[in-house]
Specification:
Blueprint lengths: L1 E4 L7 H9 L7 H20 L4 E7 L4 E7 L3 E7 L2 H11 L4 E11 L6 E9 L7 E5 L2 E2 L3 H10 L7 E10 H10 L5 E8 L1 E2 L5 E2 L5 H6 L6
Parallel strand pairs: 1-10, 4-5, 4-7, 7-9, 8-9, 9-10
Antiparallel strand pairs: 2-3, 5-6, 11-12
């Protein structure tokens, strides 16, 4: 798998990342969502450089000119619910993309450390010979990303696959690297060193879904 870690360069992305992590700023849910959306836009821009382009003629009021435009048929698939702002950021740039949504959540069997990923709701167009962008803001263990991809397989074989995340843990990145083929691209803002005993990224930022939309009811 080809890994594109944007934190290796100093860019404006660092401002958005610092605000996502800062516990005094992340209490503003609207700003938290907007920062994830803006990071999605930056990741979309970087990802766009790897797409396939073809020169097309455009007629202006004064003359004609050629502009290279992407040819890829893109499907953006996001994991609910934290994936929604990231999805919006990607869609702001790939506005002709088709869209897919899937719910994947941790089901704790007995202890907080012991869980499995449950996939329930899924809506997806055909993926056959298309460019699949699989978006999940937090790449912790990688289990959600892998379970989602397995659930998508009945919808066809993508021509190429791009994974997009805001923050990942080294363990999660390693796990998805083994699961996806070598041609898969991972576009990620930063990679943190570890997971805690509950499988959350450290230093991370907390629960992205709760910070976006408020705490969920515990069952």
């Amino acid at each position: 798998m080809q890994i594109h870690n944007l934190s290796k360069e100093n860019t404006i992305l660092n401002v958005f990342m610092s605000e996502l992590r800062d516990k005094t700023i992340q209490t503003d849910n609207m700003r938290f969502r907007r920062n994830i959306e803006r990071i999605g836009e930056i990741l979309a821009y970087e990802l766009s450089k790897s797409l396939h382009f073809k020169a097309k003629t455009v007629e202006t009021p004064l003359a004609t000119t050629e502009i290279s435009l992407p040819e890829n048929e893109i499907v953006i698939c996001s994991i609910l619910r934290a994936g929604i702002p990231l999805h919006n950021g990607l869609l702001n740039y790939f506005d002709a993309a088709e869209n897919a949504f899937i719910s994947a959540y941790r089901h704790h069997k007995s202890t907080p450390e012991n869980f499995e990923i449950i996939v329930e709701y899924l809506a997806c167009p055909s993926l056959e010979n298309k460019t699949l962008i699989l978006a999940d803001p937090m790449l912790a263990t990688g289990q959600s990303m892998m379970a989602t991809y397995e659930a998508l397989k009945p919808f066809g074989t993508p021509k190429e696959i791009h994974l997009v995340s805001v923050i990942g843990a080294e363990q999660g990145v390693e796990n998805v690297s083994k699961h996806f083929n070598a041609d898969t691209h991972l576009w990620i803002s930063t990679i943190d060193e570890k997971l805690n005993e509950k499988g959350y990224i450290v230093p991370g930022l907390g629960d992205a879904g709760d910070l976006c939309f408020g705490q969920k009811l515990q069952q």
